[in-house]
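Long-time lurker, first post. I've been practising inverse folding by hand and with some scripts of my own, and I keep getting stuck on stretches where the structure tokens seem ambiguous. Below is the full token string for one chain I'm working on. Before anyone asks, I'm not after the true native sequence, just a reasonable design that respects the backbone. If someone could post their per-position residues I'd love to compare against what I wrote down in my notebook.
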């Protein structure tokens, strides 16, 4: 009886526990495609279901407010390639904590914008999908992850939700490799 119990315990400790530990791993790592510099690749779901592949650019501005405080703004701009209808997505990442020497790498969660954008610290964005006659969509939830930030290029991923004045939503998920806009 004891040899059977010993074999059962060995089987349990050396077989099932490692199998259990290996199978209960963390969240899967999202696989984003490698992009050429100056491009973006987004999947859009919600009111529209489409894929946006296009041009990605950015600007980095430092602005002073009326009190003399520096506000660093990273402006990301994405435009669809070869499309008759204008399709633009733009984000402004504003941070009071970033100095001129530091970069915008890291994760930026969407904050609710209550009032004017002047002096705002967070992420603001809009999407103009399917041309000028459509209501614009404004960012509501999600976040942007900046992986690499060089003087002339920024790489990252985003997963955000937009809503328009009618309450219709867009979910945009994908990656970008933006070049500096001159």
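-- Answer (accepted) --
I ran through it position by position. Result:
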């Amino acid at each position: 009886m004891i040899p059977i119990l010993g074999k059962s315990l060995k089987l349990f400790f050396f077989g099932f526990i490692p199998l259990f530990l290996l199978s209960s791993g963390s969240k899967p790592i999202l696989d984003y495609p490698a992009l050429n510099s100056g491009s973006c690749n987004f999947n859009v779901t919600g009111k529209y279901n489409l894929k946006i592949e296009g041009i990605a650019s950015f600007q980095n501005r430092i602005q002073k407010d009326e009190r003399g405080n520096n506000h660093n703004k990273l402006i990301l701009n994405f435009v669809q390639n070869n499309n008759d209808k204008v399709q633009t997505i733009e984000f402004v990442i504003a941070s009071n904590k970033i100095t001129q020497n530091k970069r915008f790498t890291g994760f930026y969660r969407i904050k609710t914008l209550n009032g004017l954008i002047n002096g705002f610290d967070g992420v603001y964005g809009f999407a103009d999908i399917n041309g000028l006659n459509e209501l614009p969509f404004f960012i509501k939830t999600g976040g942007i992850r900046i992986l690499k930030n060089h003087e002339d290029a920024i790489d990252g991923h985003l997963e955000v939700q937009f809503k328009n004045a009618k309450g219709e939503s867009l979910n945009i998920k994908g990656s970008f490799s933006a070049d500096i806009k001159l």
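A couple of notes from the structure itself: Residues 33-180 form one domain. The two ends are 80 Å apart (CA to CA). Happy to go over any region you disagree with.
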